[in-house]
Amino acid sequence: MKGAARLDPGPATAPHAAPRAWEASDPYAAALRAGRGPLFLRRTDGWLLPLDVERWCARADTADLEVLDRCEGAVLDVGCGPGRLVAELAARGRTVLGIDVSEAAVARTVRTGGQSLRRSVFEALPGEGRWDTVLLMDGNVGIGGDPRALLARVADLLAPGGLLIAETAPGDVDERAQVQVVDVTDGHAPGTTFPWARTGTRALLRHAGAAGWEGAGQWRSGERRFVALRSTRRASSSAEPPNNAAVMSSQRPRNPSDDSAVADR
């Protein structure tokens, strides 16, 4: 995938009844359009996890740049949000694609100069089995509520020996929960409930080890924590079709028309 200037968005996926959790959340879309919060993930027991919308909508910061300096080859940013990392890599002349289930996130990524596609990581994606680096930043290791399933999916996306860089949760945490995106200040209805995970460094390394990944580094930048993992999947001479078996209910598309191929705009 090295050197490609444009990325084919790939085939549209079949419709499903369940909505995309992030896209269905009006508070999330409104916050991205405004570029600010407050915004939270709320568990069913009422506990709130603040979401750093202002940082996501700003330019890549020092911690982000350190991550991007470690990226290899063509980069896929899973859950790219408003696209600060995609835009920075594109400005460096790198081959990069962001994916996100939120239409507002994809639109903002495109406006900042990045290529982005409205799709879930568990749907068919361009370049499956050929990406050199996959990013799971800003807590996106929690997508789908099952870190091992997500690690398996990322392994399918990466080229043999490819690199995963994930941002982990503070502390020794390894939890699964049903959550909603909420804005506690302005009367927005909460978003759809969906499964999420919070995974610290030790827990992620444990899950990765069980799945056969190799550790490639871990570091901190301020209060943020990161892990790099190396895929041990071997090259196959056979074609590798998209892996749709692991599609999770919180990540399914509503309609093939939602598969916005904005990467070619």
Automatic annotation (TrEMBL):
GO molecular function: methyltransferase activity
Gene3D superfamilies: Vaccinia Virus protein VP39
Region (Disordered): 231-265
Keyword Methyltransferase tagged: yes
Keywords for this protein: Methyltransferase, Transferase
Superkingdom, natural source: Bacteria
Pfam families: Methyltransf_23
Sequence ranges of Low complexity compositional bias: 231-246
GO BP terms in the entry: methylation
UniProt KW Transferase keyword: yes
The protein's name: Class I SAM-dependent methyltransferase
